[in-house]
Specification:
Largest sheet: none
Strand content: under 5%
Shape: globular
Low-confidence stretches: 328-334, 376-381
Radius of gyration: 25 Å
Mean pLDDT: 83
Helix content: over 70%
Number of strands: 0
Distance between the termini: 16 Å
Order of helices and strands: HHHHHHHHHHHHHHHHHHHHH
Length: 550
């Protein structure tokens, strides 16, 4: 079920009034005493929180509308992590506690690996063996990727890890935990909520707040406007240009990249805004997932503004455990994974560049492996190199999390290189501190523009269906520059410029809710313009959000 469909509108219109009519709790000591201990009392403990029961039922229905068969995976992951959380909290022996954490990770990552990554690794291994002259047929799984599996497995797994770290105490109410994992506004595309943030909201009584409802309604409207007006109209241009990438010139290639840069932002941030708005209408506060990412002045700042919930998850559950900025843990594992990465990229990249001779390929493979293994094997004890390795590994895994393809791995690798490069250059960049306000503003503008275009290159890699397509479009920009046709430029400008003007106002005022603080007549003009753009210019085909595939 998609937010941008009438099906969801009917679903939410029915759910919302019923949800606020149903009481949060029927908990009563007197009622418990009157109930038969063998018949009604167990039923009482099941339905003592009717509002959460309704929320859980609605969330399961929401997910089952996509494919009811995969609801069993969601329930299995929920039940397993609920039990593992209780076991980890009850047991004091470190070895046994780690065993249950490992069981939770094995189940969640096992499901993720089976449905999302098996075919990718099997096909990659088979291709490498074939190029080496070995024919080893590997089974291909004809399975559908369960929607949202990357999000709810991470969220459920972090619950057990937080209990193991003794950051939280486990809930002993299965309904509350199941509602936390399956909460439908963010179930299939985030934001990834931490148990420390969402679980207390589910446990606590909620009361209808008219101001919160107004805020939620605005977020739903604004999020869907970004989706159906900007993202879905840009998608028509992006799909057209990327579909004929071999014949377009450099100007159109640039248009395609810029258009996708704003398409993916409006698509994903539009979903997040709608999810936060729906949650507000239900009395919940979800985490901010986007904070003007294209105004970042460095790659590091970009990742503190883009998909914030995933960035912080990878930082807390992967980068810091690897050693973060301090030291290198798991040295052997990181060496093996990074060596495998560079070996794979060095094997497949030459063909994309047309370098197909055996001697050239072997030279590139050796150079790539040496370039990686030199810092990881020869000087792994140096703190600086350990930090770089941790950064690279975190970003590569983050790229692979997005999809089972070498383009996603390369995208993560590319952003890892940007982060490492920025760390190396930061001492020199920090020395540039213009005293004049105008010069300081210009220098900041230069950093924003430079970071934006580095991110755009990353989005080319992300959107491309093959590394060969990435190389082809880059060559078009370099070798065949041209002024793009107005038939493409004008629609892109009409869609992007109003959004940019609004975001500039948000950035200058440092206020994401700046429109709410303007005079009533300014708000009226803004809402009216958005309404007519929504009704007259919206693409109402119910197109899927991009991040649903992850």
């Amino acid at each position: 079920m998609l937010f941008n469909t009438f099906h969801f509108a009917y679903f939410f219109a029915i759910l919302l009034p019923v949800y606020w009519i149903v009481p949060h709790s029927l908990d009563s000591e007197g009622l418990r005493r009157r109930l038969s201990p063998w018949v009604l009392r167990p039923l009482y403990w099941v339905v003592r929180q009717p509002q959460n029961i309704l929320l859980l039922a609605a969330s399961y229905y929401f997910y089952a509308c996509w494919d009811w068969r995969f609801l069993s995976l969601l329930i299995l992951s929920t039940a397993m992590d609920f039990g593992c959380g209780l076991a980890v909290d009850r047991i004091d022996e470190p070895r046994k506690r780690k065993l249950f954490v490992a069981l939770s990770m094995a189940l969640n990552l096992g499901m993720l690996g089976y449905f999302k990554y098996y075919n990718f690794f099997a096909e990659s291994l088979q291709a490498m063996l074939a190029r080496a002259g070995l024919s080893v047929p590997l089974a291909h799984l004809n399975v559908v990727l369960p929607i949202g599996i990357s999000f709810y497995t991470f969220q459920s797994m972090s619950y057990v890890i937080d209990i193991y770290r003794r950051d939280i105490k486990p809930t002993r109410n299965f309904v509350e935990f199941a509602a936390f994992v399956s909460f439908f506004p963010h179930l299939v595309a985030g934001p990834i909520m931490r148990p420390t943030s969402l679980l207390p909201q589910i446990e606590a009584p909620r009361r209808f707040n008219l101001q919160q409802f107004y805020q939620g309604a605005y977020l739903i409207f604004w999020g869907l406007t970004k989706k159906v007006v900007v993202a879905d109209n840009l998608a028509l241009i992006v799909n057209d240009l990327f579909g004929k990438w071999e014949t377009i010139d450099g100007g159109l290639a640039m248009v395609a990249i810029y258009a996708f840069t704003f398409q993916i932002y409006c698509d994903f941030s539009g979903y997040t805004d709608a999810a936060r708005g729906i949650a507000k209408c239900l009395g919940f506060e979800l985490a901010l997932n986007f904070n003007l990412p294209y105004f970042a002045t460095s790659p590091q700042e970009f990742w503190s503004r883009w998909h914030i919930s995933l960035s912080s998850w990878l930082r807390d559950y992967l980068y810091i455990p690897l050693g973060g900025n301090r030291k290198a843990n798991g040295v052997i594992v990181t060496r093996v994974l990074m060596a495998a990465l560079i070996g794979g990229l060095a094997y497949f990249l030459p063909a994309a560049f047309g370098l197909t001779t055996t001697g050239t390929k072997l030279m590139l493979i050796r150079a790539g492996i040496v370039a990686l293994l030199a810092p990881t094997l020869l000087i792994p004890v140096r703190r600086t190199m350990a930090v770089y390795r941790n950064l690279m590994l975190t970003m590569v895994i983050g790229g692979l999390w997005h999809g089972a393809a070498w383009t996603f791995v390369l995208w993560g690798f590319y952003h890892g290189v940007l982060l490492v490069g920025h760390r190396i250059a930061k001492p020199w960049l920090d020395r540039i501190r213009p005293a004049d306000p105008v010069e300081a503003a210009c220098w900041k503008g230069v950093r924003i523009v430079a970071t934006f275009h580095m991110v755009c290159v990353g989005w080319l890699i992300f959107r491309a269906t093959s590394i060969r397509q990435v190389v082809g479009m880059v060559r078009a920009i370099v070798e065949r520059p041209a002024i793009p046709a107005s038939a493409y430029m004008l629609p892109v400008a009409v869609l992007i410029v109003p959004l940019l003007l609004y975001q500039i106002a948000q950035y200058v005022t440092d206020d994401l809710d700046v429109i709410a603080r303007t005079p009533w007549y300014v708000r009226s003009v803004f809402y009216t313009a958005c309404f007519y753009a929504f009704v007259l210019g919206g693409e109402f085909g119910g197109s899927q959000f991009i991040y649903f595939q992850f």
